[in-house]
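Figure 2 data, in text form.
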Amino acid sequence: MSTADPSNSSTTTSPAAILRQRLSDRTATIGVVGMGYVGMPLAHAVLEAGFQVLGFDVDKRKIDKLATGEVYLPHLGEAMHTELANSERFTATDDPGRLEAADVVILCVPTPLGAHREPDLTFVHQSTRMAAKVLRPGQLIVLESTTYPGTTRNEMQPLLEETGLVCGQDFFLAYSPEREDPGRKGVTTKAIPKLVGGVDETSTELAMLLYGSAVEDAHRVSTAEVAESAKILENVYRAVNIALVNELKLILDKMDIDIWEVVAAAATKPFGFQPFYPGPGLGGHCIPIDPFYLAWKARELGHTTRFIELAGEINSQMPAHVVAKVAEALNTLSRPIRGSKVLVLGIAYKPDVEDMRESPAATIIELLLEQGAEVSYHDPHCPNFPEMRQHDIDLNSVALDESTLAASDCVLIVTDHSNVDYELVGRCASLIVDTRNAMSDVEQPAASIIKA
């Protein structure tokens, strides 16, 4: 039997074969749509792997800063911004037409909730349509945004195939969820294992070639739906367990038992227990949002997610609980909340980052203002209260000094940044409501401390 010469085979010039070769020898150009908390570190990891990288964002201000190396995401460090700006293999653009030159287009766009806590896929649809306008044979499109199972196949694929190109034959489509943890020290995007699932075998294979080159551990799953579901599970797991300790905190508070000490005691067990900690509410782009994506999809299929929705209800009530504790604490000083000066420490959603996405601080401050409190805040990472989709708060960070603390009727710790002088707070404030157990290591504070 004679064997055909591979060089003459049409398969060697198929869109998949051409892209496979470009990914293998790292001559492919990778387009990253959305140069924010997810897109920038991903672009940097792909650049380090040796690929040409095209960073796209609709925000012209980000593009200008990327071109000059100006830092706009401080938690990622000055070095990353500088390396991108100085690399001959990285280009920043706000021109969507340039994505036609990309062999791979990775979408890192927000997936927020609508007014009724329903999934808002506006940015996914917009970015997919943008990619469709420049779609050509041999391109791989990857979604990284967290969403409900079926989004990649049922929402994106039809939009891309409106071009007349066929998925799995002319172009390829996969899902690989972001797993960024802003502010975590010593863990880079390259070191975080990556899940990869395509809408077909070829798409999965090509996406694995890309991510296998850029990260230390790319884990292949059978479908895009498995990868989408795994990401949802990761965040539902955290949301449910945080709700558990938040509910337990409310109960133990009535019994005058310290939830923080209880969690620390339980955590001494070396198996069967993982510590989760209470707080003033959930923040960040994942945990407050993703469970509702799954709950919405379940309702569409005729199922209810009572466990998940209850967790969401408990967590979403925590800001109101915090404000109630502030009012209760002020009452011990015979002061009403109306007219009292409340200094909020920390407005970012987690320590040591500037990230305000879904931060409970916004809701807490609005509730305090509604009840007539005079609110100010200090946050070394957020000098100005940023524009937010659901909040409009016109405040700037104030200095944290003796006079500011002494002038405050109550200091409310919402985010426990490490570069805050809690010894100073304990010495100069008269009343502290602590939602993060930040004052636990301060010896003999002069202030009265209420845990919330």
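Caption note: The chain has three domains: 10-222, 230-316, 318-452.
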